[in-house]
Structures are given as C-alpha cells and as structure tokens.
Amino acid sequence: xxxxxxxxxxxxxxxxxxxxxxxxxxxxxxxxxxxxxxxxxxxxxxxxxxxxxxxxxxxxxxxxxxxxxxxxxxxxxxxxxxxxxxxxxxxxxxxxxxxxxxxxxxxxxxxxxxxxxxxxxxxxxxxxxxxxxxxxxxxxxxxxxxxxxxxxxxxxxxxxxxxxxxxxxxxxxxxxxxxxxxxxxxxxxxxxxxxxxxxxxxxxxxxxxxxxxxxxxxxxxxxxxxxxxxxxxxxxxxxxxxxxxxxxxxxxxxxxxxxxxxxxxxxxxxxxxxxxxxxxxxxxxxxxxxxxxxxxxxxxxxxxxxxxxxxxxxxxxxxxxxxxxxxxxxxxxxxxxxxxxxxxxxxxxxxxxxxxxxxxxxxxxxxxxxxxxxxxxxxxxxxxxxxxxxxxxxxxxxxxxxxxxxxxxxxxxxxxxxxxxxxxxxx
Length: 427
Description:
alpha/beta
C-alpha cells in the first residue's frame, strides 16, 4: 500500500477517570461545628469522534495509536467541586466506520457528520457533605471516582462515492476520472500506477453532479489478498453504481470477456451483495481498435446477455465519455442513497473476578462497600436497565457480599453505599 494512503488502523481509546470526593469540614471563625463540606470530584473527560471533511485518509493514526482523555479533578473543601476532565476530540474522515476490534462488530458509522461519544468518562465521587444525617453528623468518608471506559477500536475508511470505477490495472480508469472531473490522479502506461483511491466530483448539468471514485486495479485473487485491489475493495461498498472499464484494444494481448468475468468473480467473492450492485460496462480504448471490432462486439454481446448497459468510449480522446456520464447521472436518480452502516455492536457481559476481598466498613447506619472488582463492576452497569440490575445483584450474591454484611450485623433500612450507587438494605 502506498505510504500516503492509510484506510484501516487499530487504536486504543480511554476516557478519563472521575475525581475522588473530598473529606473536609467547615472551619470558620465564630462558626462552631460547621459540619462536613467536602465537594464532589469532577467527571472524567469523554472520547468523542468528530468528522473532518478536510481529511481524506487515516494517515494521522499511523504513528499515534493510544488516545486518553483528561481525568476529573478531586473535590475540595468548602463544597468546591472538582473540575471535569477535558474531553478528547478525535477527528476522522467522513465515511469512517468504527468497529470493536475484538468482535469486529460495527459501533458507529461516521457518515452523518454528527459527533459520536466512543468512551464515557467515569463519574466523580461524592464528597462527605452528602453523607451528613442527624445521627451521622461527622462523616469521615467520601466516595472515590469511577474509572472511564476504554475500548480497542478498528477504524476503517469506506469512501463516500456515488460511482465506483472498477477494472483491471491499466484499463484507463484514472484517465477517465481526469477527463470527467477535476481530479488529477497519476496517469502512466504501466500497471498499478494508481496506488490509492482517487475521488472526483463530476458535474453533469446545472445543479446535477455526483462523486466518482477510481479504485486501484483489482486482479484475480484480490479478494484473497493478491495485488493492491484487496486493500481497497471496501471502498466500493458504499458506491450506488459501478462503472466497469474493460480494455478492448487488445494491446496487451488480454481477452476482454475473460477480464470482465474475472473482475465480476472477485467482486462476488468479496461480497455477494456487491456483485448484485447496478453496473455499467464501458469498453475503453476503442480508438486503438486497429484489428477490427471483434473484441468490442464479443464483449457487448456477453454483457448485454447478462442485463448490463454497454458503452464504447476512448478516455484518451474523450470520445463517448459525455454519454457515459449522462447515463450515470440518470441511473443515480433511481438508486437509493449511499449506504450507511447500522451499528451491530452489543457490549459483552462484563467478566468479573470476585476473588479479591472487599472492604466493608460501617458508620452508624451507613455501610461503605469498596474494592477494585466492585469498582470495575459498578462502572459497567446501566442501573436504568432491569437486566443490568439483575446481573449486578446476581454477582454480589454469588460473591457472598450480602451474606458477609449480614454476619457483620447489617439491618433492614440501613443505607449501603457502593461507589455512585446508594440503596436501602432489604433482607
């Protein structure tokens, strides 16, 4: 792959941790027994992906693979809250698909231009001012902040183009794109001149235009990793219409019908759905048909029997290019909009090692339960979801937390505090 184009990378993101709550008491002249006034910790910063239309590759991620947002600051006395951690914005090209690296599932498609939060910062811990009651006037404890979420992600760029140019190397795709648009791809008379996809805006008439992508030459075996095309087949996924360029000049001694069938087979091998995409077949280099029209006629008969539209053109002399562009524009008016990928990622049920001992402390009718595995568990639970709450309750019971508390003398109606969760104990 060319060093100037990167379209798939793996990164790690971690949101900021929440700041710890403060244990403090009001101290002011002439005010006796001011009481607890420790403030809450700040929330950790989020990791947010943002579309940048000035970016066309994932090159920026080649050398930096770890992204960490700011941590929340701890609370302070005088009921001062800690400052929230700074949110980290990660800019990506439009069309980037974010996947969970472990499962490969799509988490989000950055095609709509909206910001997306990939990892949420941990909630800040409560200061001791929250724990004062008539019977517990001097709470000497506070809650620590929760850790931020972290993910291993795979970023995959799928170019947003209406029309994709496909075909063997050196069939004239780059020349055609340069003729019908203002794109300036590298053009030369040798294979694999194009080492990364090129985009061009094709203007048809007043108020009518579309985006065309020149996909680097695909060869036989591309879907299995041969050549360069396998790196860029994913960019055809979003194209509503394919223009299949075939060299009919015979200048390289190739058979156009065999070439056409070979590329169609590679598309089908890569994605059966892609092979069913609407397709226009264009016989290029017709200006070089010195030995008769046999190649062009055989290809025309073959593709029309398969139900495809057929055009003859010469990108070098511009002959037939305008007609093909108009046909593309007309077909696009009938086709659905560019594909947008729906998320299919389902967060896995957290794996919790409950072998570590928990710290259970009693302050009058308040029970404080803390420990590393409990902290990780609380951070992953959605307490507004019934299934999540049931899972949380099951883990605590299986770990013997409630049994241990009852042995220590917990009573009905006592308050139990587990990080940012507080509830009334019921046997």
